[in-house]
Design goal:
Elements (H helix, E strand, L loop, with lengths): L3 E4 L6 E2 L1 H14 L7 H8 L2 H12 L6 H17 L6 E2 L3 H10 L3 E5 L4 H10 L8 E3 L11 H10 L7 E5 L2 H9 L4 E4 L7 H6 L2 E3 L7 H9 L2
Parallel strand pairs: 1-4, 1-6, 4-5, 6-7, 7-8
Antiparallel strand pairs: 2-3
Bound molecules: 2-phosphoglycolic acid and magnesium ion.
The site of magnesium ion has 10 residues, from loops.
Amino acid sequence: MPPLAVFDLDGTLVDTAPDLSASLDHCLAQDGLPPMPLDLVRPHAGHGARAMLRAAYHHFSRPIDAEGVEAHLPVFLSFYEAHIADVSRPFPGVVAAMDRLEGAGWRLAVCTNKTERLARKLLEELKLVPRFAAICGADTFPAMKPDPRHLGGTIERAGGSAEKTIMIGDTLTDVAAARALSIPSILVDFGYAPDEAARAGASCVIGHYDELTIDLAMELFKDR
Ligand SMILES: O=C(O)COP(=O)(O)O
Ligand SMILES: [Mg+2]
């Protein structure tokens, strides 16, 4: 069975924050609010549209309840779907890192808390779909990350095994899912929420995909 590298999507594989931020601004404008600065959106960009809406209304000291958030969601998501790859691009060096892994016989997969449909649309527009043995979203299985069933289901669909899998992610959500299955994890510290708990829980932290070599990936299996 070939080794498998499972990538998180937002903040790990693709820098999606600018298009997510534009969708948020579209919602804010409907309420007469100004755009939210991108650097304030980024820490929330990996936690879904609801988290971004809550953070923005909090930032502008505008109370918003759960119902208010739900009311904005369709507006956010339809704008986002139409603009999903306007400026979102793979992070520097990730395509070369995937080439290295594939060249060494690794399989690749995506395990994201985006819905599967949006994840596929984004990856299709970036012409990355054929690289992945599985693309599994928040709604692919009955549970999503950090629930290990999401990562476990992704591995199964990709034809891999937990013993020969590594997880690459940018938040504690990814690291926790990996740990629950005793899978080594790489935290990318250029992502959206590489907090202390995520750093402490990850098997290693990288600051650029150039550091994701086959030697590093193989080394991770040794401390499993
Ligand atoms: O959209 C989200 O909630 C987060 O997506 P991710 O799991 O790809 O970071
Ligand atoms: Mg992420």
